[in-house]
Design brief:
The chain has helices at about 1-15, 20-55, 80-85, 145-150, 195-200, 230-240, 250-255, 260-290, 295-300, 305-335, 350-365, 370-375, 380, and strands at about 60-65, 90-105, 110-115, 130, 140-145, 160-165, 170-180, 190-195, 220-225, 245-250. It has about 375 residues and is an alpha+beta fold. It has a 6-stranded mixed β-barrel. Helix 1 (about 1-15) packs across helix 10 and helix 10 packs antiparallel against helix 11. The chain is elongated.
């Protein structure tokens, strides 16, 4: 305990005496922390923008058209598939989901949105946090995601103007906002929800599509009576409903085009940033140890143990790293307050905590070589007496 106290005293004394030098290193670590946390937030934000609606589905399974490779845009199911699924034992509810994209005309800049259709009260329809759900049929009503409201200023009760390509020309449709939902981004776009009939009328269509006014669902969200019987229900659905393939929610997310590649790229950037931090910290403390070889030799000559010298170096590294991470975390929080909602940054508590722990660990790991070198210094050689 006494040797640990001495080691802590020596570490703090040196940090304070050379505070300018150590502060600069802490600021470098702070910048690395800032970069790592923003990369983590960007990864989470991009992931949310792509998967948020699917990950928040109130269902355990998603039904696709057979041979669509679990890609939502490639799947188009028959209308009667929903009823066939509902008749399977173990299915609590099944809701068709229709997907497309469109554009809201605003006074400033047109806003690209995902146009989705679902049935109120069925899987696929998100909870309403304000107003009410749209009426069924061709009601010309929509429920908008909170991000749409934030980016456009549209409120419940307002009328929105939709521009949609019909055949070879643009047409405009007017829909009234009935309610508000939250956390439903899809394909990097905020989302609006409407009834299948309104969706079929409003969605962009080719000249061939205009000849058929029947809305065909892309996928069907299936809620199970036994939420943990996923594998057995997959087999049962495949056996009883023709021309389908079934996936759970994680599989559906992983097969969203570009999702896995995007997350792999962001995670690689984070790993390389941590590696750079590791090398920077290791290099600095290696130079620091080399500059004070004579002092370490004196300490050992007057009776300090290798444990005291090593512990002092480790404590010093931990202090400098912790200060840098604290500064970087504070700067990250301050900067995050000024970003507009259009920038896809989401500071997930778990991811941020993991990043901070990793940053705190790279200090001692990066300085491990310098600690080993300090412990192995021979007093007589350090003092050039041998």
């Amino acid at each position: 305990m006494r040797s640990l106290s001495i080691a802590a005293y020596l570490a703090l004394k040196e940090v304070w005496r050379n505070r300018g030098r150590f502060l600069l290193v802490s600021l470098v670590i702070a910048l690395i922390t800032l970069l790592v946390l923003f990369i983590a937030a960007l990864g989470e934000g991009l992931a949310n923008g792509n998967r948020q609606y699917i990950s928040n589905l109130n269902a355990q399974l998603v039904v696709f058209l057979q041979r669509s490779d679990y890609i939502i845009s490639s799947s188009q199911l028959q209308v009667d598939t929903v009823n066939q699924i509902r008749r399977v034992d173990g299915v609590a509810a099944a809701g068709p989901i229709y997907t497309s994209t469109t554009e809201i005309e605003t006074p400033k800049v047109p806003l690209k949105v995902s146009l989705l259709a679902a049935l109120p009260g069925q899987p696929g329809m998100p909870p309403i946090i304000g107003g009410r759900a749209f009426r069924g049929g061709d009601s010309d009503e929509v429920v908008i995601d909170r991000n749409v409201a934030l980016q456009t200023g549209i409120q419940i009760g307002d009328e929105i103007r939709i521009r949609s390509t019909q055949g070879g020309s643009d047409e405009f449709f007017y829909l009234r906002v009935a309610g508000l939902t939250s956390g439903q981004s899809y394909y990097f776009q905020p989302t609006i929800f409407t009834s299948p009939a309104t969706w079929e009328k409003v969605r962009p269509q080719s000249a061939a599509d205009l000849k058929d006014d029947t809305p065909y669902p892309n996928i069907i969200a299936v809620q199970l009576s036994g939420p943990f019987q996923i594998n057995s229900m997959k087999a049962q659905l495949l056996a009883k409903v023709p021309n389908i393939e079934v996936a759970d929610i994680p599989t559906t997310i992983d097969n969203i085009p570009g999702y896995s590649a995007q997350q792999g790229t962001v995670q690689t950037q984070g790993v390389f940033t941590l590696l750079i931090g590791l090398l920077v910290i290791g290099g600095f403390f290696q130079i620091q140890i080399l500059q004070k070889v004579p002092q370490i030799g004196v300490l050992k000559a007057i009776g300090s143990t290798n444990g005291t010298v090593g512990a002092s170096a480790v404590i010093q590294i931990i202090i400098v790293t912790a200060i840098g991470v604290a500064i970087g975390g504070g700067l990250t929080y301050i900067f995050s307050l000024g970003f507009p909602p259009t920038i896809p940054l989401v500071f997930n508590g778990t991811n941020s905590l993991f990043a901070i722990i990793a940053l705190l660990l790279i200090g001692p790991i990066g300085g491990l070589v310098s600690v080993i070198y300090a412990v192995r210094i021979e007093p007589l050689k350090a003092l050039r007496l041998q």
